[in-house]
Design goal:
With about 210 residues, the protein is mainly beta. Helix content is about 10%, strand content about 30%. The strands form 5 sheets. The protein has a 6-stranded parallel sheet, covered by helices on one side.
């Protein structure tokens, strides 16, 4: 009987620590939704969060955060140090299925869009000190900063230290375009300063 109880405890622990999928969309809610389903706040409580900050603060190591393809979020997202590992990175990605190749601007409809406002010159994604084991996969990253200067649309490591094991893949990183004219706010697409930072299958257009 004791052996059965121990087995049940082990099974319960395995289930309770299973990675979760967290959903985010602009018509979701941080107050009445639990982030477990890709649905609007009208489906409360099983519906998506509304903001990246809520999803990132809720996420645990190994979780996948899915943003609704075609939705847009403005601001700067800082990836914190959650003390994850090589086997439990946190992935930020799209609700849509992306091609298994380098992406191009033609794939934009499959991606959620993140636009920096250029606050203090920061990009759409930055990292906290010692942040690691994050994967950004299948995102459109650009700016809505007008003519404000943006140091880089994606900033991993600079100006903080200790950043490691962060991956940007299958993403389109580009200057904001207004009509046929570029408002060149960003000095560069990506700035990496750390250990084991990976850039693969992206389309960089700055």
């Amino acid at each position: 009987m004791r052996a059965i109880k121990l087995l049940l405890v082990v099974l319960f622990m395995a289930v309770s620590t299973q990675a979760a999928t967290i959903y985010v969309r602009v018509d979701g809610s941080n107050s009445i939704c639990n982030g477990t389903v890709n649905a609007s706040a009208a489906s409360t409580p099983n519906c998506a969060y509304a903001t990246p900050a809520q999803a990132i603060s809720t996420a645990s190591c190994g979780d996948v955060i899915k943003f609704l393809a075609g939705d847009t979020w403005d601001g700067t997202i800082t990836l914190p140090n959650k003390s994850c590992s090589v086997s439990t990175p946190i992935t930020i990605t799209s609700t849509a299925t992306l091609p298994s190749r380098r992406v191009t601007p033609a794939d934009a409809s499959l991606m959620p869009r993140f636009r920096t406002l250029g606050t203090d010159g920061h990009g759409a994604f930055t990292t906290a000190t010692d942040a690691g084991w994050w994967v950004l996969d299948g995102l459109e990253i650009t700016d809505n900063a007008g003519m404000s200067t943006v140091n880089a649309l994606v900033e991993f490591g600079e100006p903080v230290t200790g950043v490691h094991d962060v991956t940007l893949t299958r993403s389109w990183v580009h200057q904001k375009e207004t009509g046929t004219n570029y408002e060149r706010a960003a000095l560069r697409a990506v700035r990496f300063e750390g250990v084991r930072l990976t850039l693969t299958r992206n389309y960089l257009d700055t």
